C-alpha cells in the first residue's frame, strides 16, 4: 500500500538515511512476513482486523560488517531504555514494537544514534515544529479576508500547506502530538470555514483536506479528528467546491470514516448538516447531481463518480447497514427516490472496471435485500412502487392477527387527514413518515442508527410549528391581492408595449418604404426626362417631314422598360404632360373572386370580391306560374318569441304542381297545442324548471329572461371568446372602426372573431327581435351590434390582413432568399466543382462497361457514395476514403460547407407552397384595395379611421410586396440556371429535392469526417492507455523490488487509514462480500427456479 510505503520511508529515515551519516553500517537483510487480513461481518473493517506477529529474519548469506562507532555501545539495560523512548515516538503497535526490540543490539544502537543526530542537528529548520505551520495557516486565514492572493502568493501558501501535510506523514510521533496539543486541527477547520470563493477553488483547499487526511492516518490524530464535535461536518462542507480533486479527497475521508467504529453516524449527521449548508431539497441531492453530471475530462469524471459510488456503498453497508436490513432499505430508498437507478444505468457506458465493481456491488446488495424482504412475505419480488401490492401484502400478513384492527384504525385516520390538490398540508404526512421510520429503525435500546430522531414530540405543537394556518391564510390573501394588482398592471403595460411596438414598426416600415420610393422616383424621373427629350426630337423630325424636307433619322436608343411609346397626334405640337405613376398590379388582370365560404350567402353583384357580404334584398309580391296569386296564410302569432327552425324555404312560384299546392297547414293548427309548443321552444332561456321556495320565486321574478335565437353551441363558443377579449361590445365596435390603433385586438383574437361574423340568417332573426335588445343573450347582442357596422366582415378581414402581413412577409422573404443564395452558391462554388471532379474520377475508375467512361453524373448519385463499403473494413465507406484523400491532397475541400451555407435552409423550402403564399398575399392586397375604394365612396360616420389607416398601409404594403415578388422572379431564374448548371431537367425537380440532395451529402460528409476523427482519437487513446499501463506496471514492479530490497521495514498502525481509503477507492473492500453475494444469488436463483414459476426480478428501475 502507498501509505505503508510512506510509513516505511519514515522509519528508514529514522534509522540511518541522514545525509551526514557517513559510518559504515552492517547490511542486515531482514524480511517481514506479510500481514494477514481478517475480515469479519461484511468485511469493511479489514484494515482494523488482527494481524499475525511480523517475523524479522536474519539472512546469513551476507555476513555482518562490523561498525566503527564514534560513541561506544552502552550496556544492554541502558540501550533498551533509550531504544524504548525512540520506539514510543514511532507510535507502533505492540506486535511491531516486539519486532523492533528483537533487533540485534548493534542495529538498535545504529537506529538510536542516527535519530538523535538528526534531532540535535544545529541546521535543523523551524519547519520541523508544528508551531511554525499553525502560525502561518492562521495568518493565511486572517489575510484572505482582507485581500485576494495573486498566483505567486497562492503558490507560496500552497507550498506551506503541502509541507505540513508531508510533515504530518513523515515526522516522529511527537510532532503529531505537539500539533494536536497546539489545537492544529481547529486551525485547519477554521481555515476551511473562513475560505473565500477563490481559495475554495484553489489547490490550497485540496492541500488542507490532505493535511486532515494525513492527520487521520495516525491513530492519535484520527481519534482527535473523530472526537472533535464539528470536524466531519466542516469537512463535508468542502463538497460545495467545483474542484474535483478536493471533492474526491473529501469523499474518500467520509467513506473511510463510515468504516471506522462510531464514524458511520457522524457521516450521516454531516450529510444532514450539508443539506442545510448547501440548501439541498433533500439529503444526498448534491451527490446524485454530481453522479449524473458530465464533467468533460474522462479521467476526472470517472474518478469522481467512482469516489461517489464508493461513498454510497460505504454509507449503505457500513455501520448500522452491516447487519440491519431495515436500515439498508430505508437509506437506499432515499437514493432511489433521487433517481440513482437511471444514473447507474448511464454510468455503465463509461466501461471502467473500478467503477463497474462499485456499481455491481450496489445492485447485488440491493437485489439480495429485495429478495430477503420478499421472503418475509413468501414472495419472489415485491413491487415497492405499487401501493396496491404493498397494501395487499400487509393486509394478508395481518388479516387474522391482533394487529389488524390497528391497521384499520390507521387507514381510517389516514382518510381523515387533510387532502389538498395543490400539495398543501404535506407536513402531517411527513410527520407520519418520520414516526414510522423511527419505529422501524430504532433498536431495543432506543437508539436510532440514522440522524434526527423524534423524541418527546407533540403532534399538535409540531404541526403548529410547521404550519400556522391563520398566518398562512392572511399572507395568502394579501399575496392574492398583490397578484391581481400585478396582473392588471401587467395587462395594461403589455397593451401599451404592443401599441408602442406596432407604432414603431409601422413608422420604421414607412420610413424604409419612403426612402425606397424616393430612389425609385429619382430613377423614373430621369427616365421620363430622357423619354421627353426623345419625343421632342421625334416631333421636330415629323414636322420637318410634313413640310416635305428630307430627314435623316438618327438611331434612337432603346425605349425604357414598359413597351413602345404611343404618341397621340394631339401631342405633336403640344408639350407632353407629366406621366402618372404606375398603378400597383397594373400589368396583370385581377384574379376572379373566390367562391363564398360554405354555408354563407353568395356575394351580391357589384360587391367587392373576397370581402363581400350582401345585405338582404327587399321582399316583393310574387305570383305563381299560372299567373294567380297563392292564398294568403293566416298564421297564429305566438305570445312571445320562439326559437327559429333553420329550413330552406321554397319559392312561391315553384309551389304550383307540387305536393305543397295540396297541403293546407291551417288545418293542423286546429289540433296542435300551441301553448305547450311555446313552452317547449321559447326563445327565452329558462334556467330553472321549478321554484322550490318563496325566496327562489322572488329571485326568479327579479331575474330578466334572456332571449337567444343563435345556435346554442355557436353562442357558447362566442361567449367564451368574448370573455377572453375582456372588452365590451362598444369597445370592440370602437376598436374595429378605428382599425385598432390602440392595439386592443390581438391577431389571434381577430382570427377567432372572423369565425363569429353574423350570417344573413342570423341578421334576419336578430332584426326581428331588435326591439328586445335588452333581453338578448350576450352572444346574440354582440352579433346584432356588430351587424350594424357597415361591411363588418370586410373591415375585420382587412384589419386581420394588416396585422398578419408583416409576419407573412417575414416568413416568405427568407425562403425566397434561401433559394436565390443557395443557387448562386452552387454555381459559384470552386470546392464543390473540385469535389465532383474527384468523385467522377473515382467513379470512372471503379465502373466498367456502359456505366464507365462517364462525362458527368446526376447529383442524386452523391448520396450513394456512402453505400459503397470497403472490402477490408466494413466501417469504412467510399465517403470516408474520399475524406482521407482530401485531407492528404485537397485539404481545402474539407471546409466545403463554408461555401454552401444556405443549402440547409433552401432544402426546407417548398416552392409550390411559397408561390401559393405569395399569390395569396397579392390577392389579399387587391381585396383590401377594393374595400378601400368602397369606403372612400361612402359617407363615413364619426370615429371611422378605415380610409386614412388603410391608405397608408396599402401604400407601404404594395411596395414591400413588389420587392418580394421581384425577388421571387429572380430566385426562379437563378434556380433554373442552377438546374441547367448540373445537367438536371428544369421543371422535374423542386428546390427542396434538389438542394436536399446536396444538404444530405454535406451532412453525411460531416458525419464521416467526425467518424474518422473518433477513430483516430480511439486509436490514440488505446495507444496512450497501453503506454500508461506499461509504465504503471513497470513502476509497480520497481516499487515491489525496492520494497523487497529494504530490510527491517516495519508496518505501523498509523498507515491503516490510507490503506482503508485505497481499498475503498479500488473496491477491494467489497471483493469478498461481492463474491459471497454472487454465490448467494446463483444459489437463490436455482432454488427459485425449482420452487416457483415466478421470475426473480434482479433489477428495478426507479
Automatic annotation (TrEMBL):
<feature type="coiled-coil region">
    <location>
        <begin position="725"/>
        <end position="752"/>
    </location>
</feature>
<dbReference type="InterPro" id="IPR010472">
    <property type="entry name" value="FH3_dom"/>
</dbReference>
<dbReference type="InterPro" id="IPR015425">
    <property type="entry name" value="FH2_Formin"/>
</dbReference>
<dbReference type="Pfam" id="PF02181">
    <property type="entry name" value="FH2"/>
</dbReference>
<dbReference type="InterPro" id="IPR014768">
    <property type="entry name" value="GBD/FH3_dom"/>
</dbReference>
<feature type="domain" description="GBD/FH3">
    <location>
        <begin position="71"/>
        <end position="447"/>
    </location>
</feature>
<feature type="region of interest" description="Disordered">
    <location>
        <begin position="1033"/>
        <end position="1052"/>
    </location>
</feature>
<dbReference type="GO" id="GO:0048715">
    <property type="term" value="P:negative regulation of oligodendrocyte differentiation"/>
</dbReference>
<feature type="compositionally biased region" description="Low complexity">
    <location>
        <begin position="564"/>
        <end position="576"/>
    </location>
</feature>
<feature type="compositionally biased region" description="Basic and acidic residues">
    <location>
        <begin position="1091"/>
        <end position="1102"/>
    </location>
</feature>
<dbReference type="InterPro" id="IPR042201">
    <property type="entry name" value="FH2_Formin_sf"/>
</dbReference>
<protein>
    <submittedName>
        <fullName>Disheveled-associated activator of morphogenesis 2 isoform B</fullName>
    </submittedName>
</protein>
<dbReference type="InterPro" id="IPR014767">
    <property type="entry name" value="DAD_dom"/>
</dbReference>
<feature type="region of interest" description="Disordered">
    <location>
        <begin position="1080"/>
        <end position="1102"/>
    </location>
</feature>
<keyword id="KW-0879">Wnt signaling pathway</keyword>
<feature type="region of interest" description="Disordered">
    <location>
        <begin position="1"/>
        <end position="23"/>
    </location>
</feature>
<feature type="compositionally biased region" description="Pro residues">
    <location>
        <begin position="577"/>
        <end position="608"/>
    </location>
</feature>
<dbReference type="GO" id="GO:0031267">
    <property type="term" value="F:small GTPase binding"/>
</dbReference>
<dbReference type="GO" id="GO:0016055">
    <property type="term" value="P:Wnt signaling pathway"/>
</dbReference>
<dbReference type="Pfam" id="PF06371">
    <property type="entry name" value="Drf_GBD"/>
</dbReference>
<dbReference type="Pfam" id="PF06367">
    <property type="entry name" value="Drf_FH3"/>
</dbReference>
<feature type="coiled-coil region">
    <location>
        <begin position="465"/>
        <end position="541"/>
    </location>
</feature>
<dbReference type="GO" id="GO:0030036">
    <property type="term" value="P:actin cytoskeleton organization"/>
</dbReference>
<feature type="compositionally biased region" description="Low complexity">
    <location>
        <begin position="609"/>
        <end position="629"/>
    </location>
</feature>
<dbReference type="InterPro" id="IPR016024">
    <property type="entry name" value="ARM-type_fold"/>
</dbReference>
<feature type="domain" description="FH2">
    <location>
        <begin position="632"/>
        <end position="1031"/>
    </location>
</feature>
<feature type="region of interest" description="Disordered">
    <location>
        <begin position="550"/>
        <end position="638"/>
    </location>
</feature>
<dbReference type="GO" id="GO:0003779">
    <property type="term" value="F:actin binding"/>
</dbReference>
<dbReference type="GO" id="GO:0090263">
    <property type="term" value="P:positive regulation of canonical Wnt signaling pathway"/>
</dbReference>
<keyword id="KW-0175">Coiled coil</keyword>
<dbReference type="InterPro" id="IPR010473">
    <property type="entry name" value="GTPase-bd"/>
</dbReference>
<dbReference type="InterPro" id="IPR011989">
    <property type="entry name" value="ARM-like"/>
</dbReference>
<dbReference type="GO" id="GO:2000050">
    <property type="term" value="P:regulation of non-canonical Wnt signaling pathway"/>
</dbReference>
<dbReference type="InterPro" id="IPR051425">
    <property type="entry name" value="Formin_Homology"/>
</dbReference>
<feature type="domain" description="DAD">
    <location>
        <begin position="1051"/>
        <end position="1082"/>
    </location>
</feature>
Amino acid at each position: 500500500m502507498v501509505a505503508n510505503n510512506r510509513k516505511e520511508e519514515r522509519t528508514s529515515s529514522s534509522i540511518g538515511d541522514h545525509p551526514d551519516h557517513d559510518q559504515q553500517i552492517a547490511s542486515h537483510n531482514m524480511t517481514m512476513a506479510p500481514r494477514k487480513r481478517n475480515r469479519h461481518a461484511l468485511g469493511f473493517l479489514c484494515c482494523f482486523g488482527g494481524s499475525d506477529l511480523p517475523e524479522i529474519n536474519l539472512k546469513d548469506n551476507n555476513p555482518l560488517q562490523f561498525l566503527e562507532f564514534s560513541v561506544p555501545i552502552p550496556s544492554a539495560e541502558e540501550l533498551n531504555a533509550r531504544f524504548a523512548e525512540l520506539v514510543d515516538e514511532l507510535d507502533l503497535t505492540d506486535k511491531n514494537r516486539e519486532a523492533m526490540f528483537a533487533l540485534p543490539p548493534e542495529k538498535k544502537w545504529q537506529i538510536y544514534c542516527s535519530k538523535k543526530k538528526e534531532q540535535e542537528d544545529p541546521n535543523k529548520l523551524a519547519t520541523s515544529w508544528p508551531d511554525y505551520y499553525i502560525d502561518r495557516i492562521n495568518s493565511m486565514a486572517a489575510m484572505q479576508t482582507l485581500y485576494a492572493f495573486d498566483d505567486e502568493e497562492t503558490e507560496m501558501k500552497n507550498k506551506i500547506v503541502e509541507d505540513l501535510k508531508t510533515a504530518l506523514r513523515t515526522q516522529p510521533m511527537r510532532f503529531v502530538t505537539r500539533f494536536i496539543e497546539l489545537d492544529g486541527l481547529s486551525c485547519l477547520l477554521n481555515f476551511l470555514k473562513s475560505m473565500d470563493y477563490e481559495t475554495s477553488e484553489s489547490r490550497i483547499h485540496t492541500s488542507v483536506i490532505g493535511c486532515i487526511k494525513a492527520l487521520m492516518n495516525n491513530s492519535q490524530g484520527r481519534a482527535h479528528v473523530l472526537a472533535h464535535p464539528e470536524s466531519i461536518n466542516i469537512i463535508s462542507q468542502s463538497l460545495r467546491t467545483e474542484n474535483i480533486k478536493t471533492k474526491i479527497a473529501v469523499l474518500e475521508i467520509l467513506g473511510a470514516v463510515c468504516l471506522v467504529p462510531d464514524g458511520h453516524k457522524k457521516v450521516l449527521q454531516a450529510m444532514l448538516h450539508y443539506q442545510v449548508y448547501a440548501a439541498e431539497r433533500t439529503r444526498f441531492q448534491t451527490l446524485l447531481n454530481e453522479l449524473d453530471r458530465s464533467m468533460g475530462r474522462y479521467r476526472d469524471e470517472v474518478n469522481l463518480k467512482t469516489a461517489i459510488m464508493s461513498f454510497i456503498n460505504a454509507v449503505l453497508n457500513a455501520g448500522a447497514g452491516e447487519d440491519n436490513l431495515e436500515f439498508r432499505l430505508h437509506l437506499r430508498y432515499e437514493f432511489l427516490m433521487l433517481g440513482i437507478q437511471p444514473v447507474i444505468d448511464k454510468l455503465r457506458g463509461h466501461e471502467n472496471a473500478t467503477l463497474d465493481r462499485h456499481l455491481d456491488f450496489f445492485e447485488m446488495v440491493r437485489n439480495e435485500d429485495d429478495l430477503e424482504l420478499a421472503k418475509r412475505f413468501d414472495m419472489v419480488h415485491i413491487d415497492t412502487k405499487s401501493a396496491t401490492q404493498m397494501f395487499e401484502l400487509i393486509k394478508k400478513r395481518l388479516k387474522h392477527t391482533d394487529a389488524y384492527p390497528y391497521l384499520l384504525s390507521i387507514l381510517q385516520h389516514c382518510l381523515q387527514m387533510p387532502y389538498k390538490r395543490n400539495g398543501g398540508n404535506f407536513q402531517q404526512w411527513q410527520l407520519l413518515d418520520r414516526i414510522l421510520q423511527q419505529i422501524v429503525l430504532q433498536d431495543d435500546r432506543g437508539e436510532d442508527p440514522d440522524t434526527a430522531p423524534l423524541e418527546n414530540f407533540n403532534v399538535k405543537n409540531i404541526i403548529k410549528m410547521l404550519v400556522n394556518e391563520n398566518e398562512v391564510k392572511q399572507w395568502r390573501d394579501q399575496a392574492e391581492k398583490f397578484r391581481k394588482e400585478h396582473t392588471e398592471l401587467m395587462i395594461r403595460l403589455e397593451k401599451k408595449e404592443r401599441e408602442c411596438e406596432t407604432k414603431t414598426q409601422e413608422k420604421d416600415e414607412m420610413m424604409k418604404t419612403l426612402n425606397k420610393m424616393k430612389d425609385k422616383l429619382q430613377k423614373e424621373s430621369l427616365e421620363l426626362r430622357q423619354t421627353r427629350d426623345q419625343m421632342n426630337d421625334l416631333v421636330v423630325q415629323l414636322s420637318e417631314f410634313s413640310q416635305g424636307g428630307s430627314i435623316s433619322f438618327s438611331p434612337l436608343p432603346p425605349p425604357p422598360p414598359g413597351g413602345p411609346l404611343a404618341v397621340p397626334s394631339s401631342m405633336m405640337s403640344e408639350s407632353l404632360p407629366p406621366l402618372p405613376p404606375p398603378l400597383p398590379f397594373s400589368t396583370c388582370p385581377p384574379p376572379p373572386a373566390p367562391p363564398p365560404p360554405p354555408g354563407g350567402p353568395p356575394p351580391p353583384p357589384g360587391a367587392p370580391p373576397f370581402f363581400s357580404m350582401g345585405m338582404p334584398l327587399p321582399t316583393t309580391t310574387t305570383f305563381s306560374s299560372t299567373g294567380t296569386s297563392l292564398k294568403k296564410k293566416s298564421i297564429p302569432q305566438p305570445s312571445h318569441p320562439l326559437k327559429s327552425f333553420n329550413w330552406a324555404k321554397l319559392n312561391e312560384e315553384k309551389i304550383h304542381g307540387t305536393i305543397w299546392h295540396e297541403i293546407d297547414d291551417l288545418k293542423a293548427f286546429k289540433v296542435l297545442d300551441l301553448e305547450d309548443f311555446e313552452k317547449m321552444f321559447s326563445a327565452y332561456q329558462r334556467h330553472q324548471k321549478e321554484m322550490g321556495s318563496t325566496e327562489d320565486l322572488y329571485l326568479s321574478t327579479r331575474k330578466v329572461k334572456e332571449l337567444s335565437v343563435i345556435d346554442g353551441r355557436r353562442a357558447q363558443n362566442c361567449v367564451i371568446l368574448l370573455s377572453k377579449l375582456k372588452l365590451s361590445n362598444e369597445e370592440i365596435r370602437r376598436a374595429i372602426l378605428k382599425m385598432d390603433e390602440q392595439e386592443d385586438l390581438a391577431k389571434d383574437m381577430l382570427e377567432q372573431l372572423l369565425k363569429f361574423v353574423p350570417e344573413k340568417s342570423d341578421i334576419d332573426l336578430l332584426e326581428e327581435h331588435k326591439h328586445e335588445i335588452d333581453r338578448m343573450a350576450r352572444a346574440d347582442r354582440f352579433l346584432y351590434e356588430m351587424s350594424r357596422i357597415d361591411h363588418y366582415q370586410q373591415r375585420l378581414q382587412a384589419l386581420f390582413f394588416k396585422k398578419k402581413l408583416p409576419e407573412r412577409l417575414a416568413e416568405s422573404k427568407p425562403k425566397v432568399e434561401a433559394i436565390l443564395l443557395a443557387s448562386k452558391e452552387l454555381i459559384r462554388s470552386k470546392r464543390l466543382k473540385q469535389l465532383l471532379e474527384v468523385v467522377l474520377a473515382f467513379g470512372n475508375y471503379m465502373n466498367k462497361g456502359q456505366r464507365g467512361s462517364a462525362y458527368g453524373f446526376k447529383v442524386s448519385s452523391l448520396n450513394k457514395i456512402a453505400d459503397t463499403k470497403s472490402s477490408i473494413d466494413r466501417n469504412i465507406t467510399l465517403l470516408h476514403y474520399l475524406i482521407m484523400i482530401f485531407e492528404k491532397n485537397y485539404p481545402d475541400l474539407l471546409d466545403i460547407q463554408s461555401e454552401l451555407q444556405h443549402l440547409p435552409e433552401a432544402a426546407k423550402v417548398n416552392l409550390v407552397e411559397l408561390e401559393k403564399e405569395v399569390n395569396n398575399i397579392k390577392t389579399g392586397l387587391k381585396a383590401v384595395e377594393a374595400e378601400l375604394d368602397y369606403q372612400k365612396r361612402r359617407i363615413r360616420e364619426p370615429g371611422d379611421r378605415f380610409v386614412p389607416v388603410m391608405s397608408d398601409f396599402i401604400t407601404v404594403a404594395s411596395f414591400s410586396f413588389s420587392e418580394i415578388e421581384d425577388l421571387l422572379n429572380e430566385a426562379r431564374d437563378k434556380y433554373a440556371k442552377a438546374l441547367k448548371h448540373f445537367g438536371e431537367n428544369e421543371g422535374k425537380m423542386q428546390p427542396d429535392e434538389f438542394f436536399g440532395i446536396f444538404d444530405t451529402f454535406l451532412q453525411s460528409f460531416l458525419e464521416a469526417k467526425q467518424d474518422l476523427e473518433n477513430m483516430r482519437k480511439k486509436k490514440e487513446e488505446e495507444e496512450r492507455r497501453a503506454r500508461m499501463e506499461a509504465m504503471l506496471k513497470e513502476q509497480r514492479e520497481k516499487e515491489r523490488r525496492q520494497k523487497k530490497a529494504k530490510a527491517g521495514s516495519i508496518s505501523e498502525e498509523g498507515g491503516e487509514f490510507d490503506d482503508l481509503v485505497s481499498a475503498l477507492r479500488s473496491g477491494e473492500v467489497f471483493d469478498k462480500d461481492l463474491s459471497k453475494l454472487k454465490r448467494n444469488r446463483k444459489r437463490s436463483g436455482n432454488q427459485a427456479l425449482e420452487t416457483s414459476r415466478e421470475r426473480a426480478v434482479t433489477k428495478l428501475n426507479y
